[in-house]
Amino acid sequence: MKKQLMKKQIMKKTVLCSLACVLTCLSSMNRLAHAHSRQDDELGSKVSAALSATWRNDGAELQESGVWQIPGALMGGEAYPVEKGTSLDDANLTIQHNSENGIYGLLQISSHDNGNEAEIHHAYAGYTFFIGDSRLNLEGGRSAAEMTPSNAEHASNRLFSESPLALDVLLGRQLNDEGLRARWQWQDWILGAESWRGSAFPATPGDNGGSFNVFLHHQEQWGRSRWRTGIWWLQADADERLDSRYLSGHTHGSATVTAPEVSFSGRSELVGAFLRLDHTLTSDRQWQLQAEWIQADVDGSLQDSTHQADHIGTHRGAWVQTALRQHQHELGVRWEHLALDNTLIGAGAPSLASIANLYNDREPTRTTFLYAWHATDTFLIRCEWTRDNSQEDSTDRFAVGLVWQETLWSQR
Amino acid sequence: MKSNHTFAALAFIAIFGLAGCGGSRTTIIDDNEVKNTAFNWRVREDLPLPVEPTTNPMTEAKFQLGRHLFYDIRLSGNGTQSCGSCHQQEKAFTDGLVVAVGSTGDLHPRNAQTLTNAGYNATLTWANSVLLSLEQQMQAPLFGENPVEQGINDSNQDEVLQRIIDEPRYADLFADAFPDEGSPITLNNIIAAIGCFVRGLTSFDAPFDRFQQGDPSALSEAAKRGMALFFSERTECFHCHGSYNFSDSTVDRTIAFIERPFHNTGLYNVDGNGGFPDGNRGLIELTGDPADMGKFRASSLRNIELTAPYMHDGSIDTLEAVVDFYAAGGRNITSGPHAGDGRLNPFKDSFIIGFTLTDQEKSDLIAFLKSLTDTEFTTTPRFSNPWSTQ
């Protein structure tokens, strides 16, 4: 294990050094490239905002301690439960600029999941470099990993208000971290590599932490259909990772919630694949299909203040969703599924499995039906009904929410 | 173009296939056979077992021999005192005295501790961080000279041993307990057998345990309210009296990192600098570290209702007074040789910060503490004095 970690550290340092060198070289070169940013390719500046707020008749079922956890999975990151009543799912303000010399940047300030404070969610800069008929982007800063488009979505730009279970469980809702990205685009193919500091679940920062991922995406216009598919691989190392959601005492109403202090040290290897299809049936009727699958293999150890056990796990998550839109009306359905296998070895295994809630005897599923009314191009109201079988007891909840997205200012 | 369509189609099929299958739901626990034992511990399945010394594995025969020896007053220098003299079953193996009295009348500086779940104690006695096994600890009451407890010494130990040899019941008991030894009646085997008996004194059948196992009627409403208080950050009780054994100084077979904490509860402050009364100053007497002044092990609260008086020197008479003491954040002694404000003791544990309870809440908290009383433990013939029943 130590050998693997050292090897990984050397590999990570090599990648970081290489990217830093390339960036330095590029900054001194003659900028012939057209400006480009990940958000869009238009030159100039833009300020946009988005907001999603939802009222729910019930929240996600919590453990007795008040912690939201799918039995069988160690969770973390930003995977907070939906709560009863009205909540602000997401509010963000985004400023982006693409200059003519190929340099671009983006700053997003946002508040998520009823967060009381706004935070800098994304802040990164990049440079576009053309090589023949291909394009290379090098970016650095704080941003969401691009291995799958779902990872960058929020309630304000997602079909459903709730994040997919698989992302919540396997990626802590969103892998959003400080790091470097290289993306090479040739025709319809995109090949990317990202190296992260490790401050985002399932990794931890520090000498024994950090994460790294590569992805291959393909996008294509085929008649009236637009496809995007991709595969990816992520390696994340953690050193005494606790459930960061509750480290400082997360609050639900007046109650402060503290998660069990069971930490994970070791490696998580995730692979994923996704497919997105948008098909225009008629001029005012569109059909959308999306499917995604993620598998995480974890290999490490669990410990609390007194117990220790080896932990090997294979956690799979998948969802399929489809939606049909006609004029202002949209109907959608999403089905989600998790399969969580864990093996704990050691004298402390029974205690840790119990404390960390890793005993599970069911396959969590969740089904959501949606109706959305697109009142204007920038404003929609959505109604959702969810049957949640992710916990011991099946629960149903109903939600009504609004989503607003607007370009506030543009100089393009 | 065709290959691109194929890629998309394959991805579509693969993802749909993977989304719908590949599922399972297993949690495999391999505890490295940590529950393997030849002894009936009478510990329910969801709780870990005490550590069993490799040099003194538990057997029923040794446990039964140990029980006889534990209660045998002949196992003392003057033949007047047994282990059971200070550790009486009906008092959860305490003696009800402020401090223990030895066989020759010596007063022990400390209160006789309960033997409830003694096999789970991470350290033994009130304030000794290196006393880790019952067999090691037993040297003190058997052979200790300051104070004298059972008073066995070089000059009388042959006589004591002869008394044991002369008791006809012991021949079979020793032979069963140590079948591979020709002359098994030795002091080492006596210690091993008593160690087995004391290690086997397990207590997990209190109303609290039955409540935890799913019987909501096992606890009164007052006890349930008291339980909420006990495990709240308001009273902080559970920090030092946590775990299934209600002590943070607990060890079992599943524990990899053993914590052996000691706490200063602000009981004294005789010199204004945190001092405790001479001769009873806690862990500092062993370590010499000034920071260890007044530090003692947090005893298990199981059967606490039966183990009065309380604290290391028996200086608090009742549970009500103990709750008042912690509510005040320490003890202020206004006169006498031990005068001083323990609340201001600089070595006081950070969890002893005081709290305010209504009369009802205090009563609820005590109701919960009383729900830790295991009457089976205090009445079962298995743990009782064999010399008085046979």
**Structural category of chain A:** mainly beta
Strand order of the largest sheet of chain B: 2-3
State the separation between the terminal residues of chain A, measured CA to CA: 52 Å
Shape of chain B, please? globular
The low-pLDDT segments of chain A are 1-37
What is the CA-CA span between the terminal residues of chain B? 95 Å
The percent range for strand residues of chain B is: under 5%
Oligomer: heterodimer
The general outline of chain A is: globular
Q: What integer is the average pLDDT of chain A?
A: 88
What's the order of the H and E elements of chain B? HEHHHHHHHHHHHHEEHHH
Question: What's the alpha carbon Rg of chain B, rounded to whole Å?
Answer: 26 Å
Sheet-strand content of chain A, in percent, reads over 45%
> Whole-number average pLDDT of chain B?
93
- Helix and strand sequence of chain A: HEEEEEHEEEEEEEEEEHEEE
Largest interface, C-beta within 8 A: A-B, 48 and 33 residues
Share of helical residues of chain A: under 10%
Which tags fit this structure?
heterodimer; A: 412 residues; mainly beta; 16-stranded antiparallel beta barrel; two-stranded antiparallel sheet; 18 strands; 10% helix; globular; disordered N terminus; B: 390 residues; mainly alpha; two-stranded antiparallel ribbon; 16 helices; 2% strand
Structure in words:
The complex is a heterodimer of chains A (412) and B (390). In chain A, strand 2 and strand 3 form a beta hairpin. Chain A is mainly beta and 412 residues long. The longest helix of chain A is centred in the N-terminal third of the chain and has 26 residues. In chain A, the strands form two sheets. In chain A, strands 1-2-3-4-5-6-7-8-9-12-13-14-15-16-17-18 form a 16-stranded antiparallel β-barrel. In chain A, strands 10-11 form a two-stranded antiparallel sheet. The N terminus of chain A is likely disordered. Chain A starts with a helix and ends with a strand. The model of chain B has no long low-confidence stretch (mean pLDDT 93). Chain B is mainly α and 390 residues long. Chain B has a two-stranded antiparallel sheet. Chain B is built from 16 helices and three strands. Chains A and B meet through strand 8, strand 9, strand 12, strand 13 and strand 14 of A and helix 1 and strand 1 of B. Strand 15 of chain A pairs parallel with strand 1 of chain B, so a sheet runs across the interface.
